[in-house]
Model the fold of this input.
Amino acid sequence: MNPIEGQERWLNEQARNGWKLFKVGRLFYEFKASNPGEYQYAVDYIGNKSNQERIKYEEFISEMNITYYEKPIKLGHFSVGKIKYRPFADKGGKIATSRGMINRELLILEKKNDGKPFAIYSNIADKIEALKERRKPYIYFIVLTLLMGFYIYYIRKPLFSYTLWSYQNDDFKGILASGVLLGLLSIISVIRALQLSLAIRGLSGTVKTHE
Amino acid sequence: MGKVQEYPLTETAFLILLAMYQPNHGYGVMQFMMEKTSGRVVFGPGTLYGAINNLSKKGWIKALFVEKNERKKDYIITDLGKLQVEAEMKRLKEVYEIGEEILRNEGAETNEKV
Done:
């Protein structure tokens, strides 16, 4: 669950220590000094939203007196030039163009601390829905990895070849390297998908009796 | 217009509909909840956004004309929405009365034992 819950915990810890978010980039956060515990943070996944949906959502967030920061995560999408293909997204969100959607998969929300936990989704059905949306890219990536794995296995050709150090056409090394790389990436995806599934299962028991 | 579902409304939908008997926007709905439930009900922004869109799609609330300088979008409940609220009130009353009756009898029995 880490990319979101981990970030949330970390940001709230910074806030408790008197640091307010100021600017968020691809790989960095900038903080400004503030009163300890003055702000609280929550992180939302918006990678499934179309550009138009995202803008509408951000407008609404502003109306609620909540500050937001956009942040990229990288997972399960192809980039071709300035277009990203996200097969797991909602209608209208599948093809991401650099204008609005690429690198805006996470939304960090910030508001004044009112002493109550800052939850983006406040009923169980919504929480489950949000977790399912987050699980989609991982599942998609796992399927893709399996397909590539089969391709490598049956065609016996590597996905890429080393121009740097493979002087002779050493297909076997390439196959091995592709396999190991895909394997590592898919293990992370499997773990994340499982974590999310467990969280969904935990909530599904409650949704039968509670809202 | 007999479009009332046999299923109970969620508390989220019911409370938002009530908050929109007066023209209201997301932040206003939030304040309404805080005040009426003494802070018990706090809607997350994601939940509130989804619920308002959903109610609007169903035609139970409708967006009011937004003036250029006014950033906040106001909504108001429609006749169809009021129908849902009335049906829900009836259901809640029935359920509440059953609960009250049972608890009253339960209380009487306990007193007898003592």
